[in-house]
TrEMBL record:
This is Glyoxylase-like metal-dependent hydrolase (Beta-lactamase superfamily II). Residues 70-267 form the Metallo-beta-lactamase domain. PROSITE patterns: PROKAR_LIPOPROTEIN. Belongs to the metallo-beta-lactamase superfamily.
Amino acid sequence: MIRRSLPVLLLLAACASENEGSMPAEAAAPKEAAPASLTLTALDCGTIEALDLGIFDVGGAYDGQTDTLADSCWLIEHEDGTLLWDLGLPAGLVEGGPMTDGPFRVSLTRTLADQLAERGVTPDFVAISHSHFDHVGQPEAAEGAVWLAQRDEREAMEEAAAADETGSLATLLAFETESFDGERDVFGDGRVKIIEMRGHTPGHSVLWVDLAETGPVLLAGDLYHLDRARELRTVPTFNSSEAETRASMAAFEALAQETGARVIIQHEDADVAPLYGTTLR
Ligand SMILES: [Zn+2]
């Protein structure tokens, strides 16, 4: 018997699937041979100059240093709908120019709405890793989407909204919302999951995206801000709980190791900026 290589078998399976109508039902390719289409696209949601990197570690690992951080947003396109992950810096920075606020100098060259319009995408769902100003800045870009909200984070936002001069929190809080606790399987097939990993904020979450070609990807939110933060396991001074952060880092690393997931540190400029506009499949 001639042994066929796997690609040949896959090709044959694909042909069988196309000709399904004229073939007996038992000859059709099994369903799992055709996974749902799923892509992940990196979008530019601004730049943050950290003027005092020291605040990114309770142990002082970065004292006296400065750095440039990317601010990335992510578009997930699944055959059953689209999800926008994180909302970046406020759109007003495009017209207004760079702004210094405390230890950060922030800037934005393109709005999220423009980048979505360019792709002809209107998100069905929106979710945030957490509610810090650099992750909720452009809720208007997701207008009409359903917000998949980690309940603990949403509650913290309700308390913080009155003091939020940008109005971003109030805008997002007014969205049609589906709240959940812990984990949310966005499209019901296990391929896109919001997973709570608290400690940076009370309901901080990461995103799992299981791509066909790339393999599983973990978007780390602000569990880590820099590649070296992952190596050093540094904990920012402004986190809501150091103990919860450390427990989340352990859970995250266990998941990454067990699944071989590619980890993306959303603020790591060197990793993320070259990916802007790129679609992973
Ligand atoms: Zn943050």
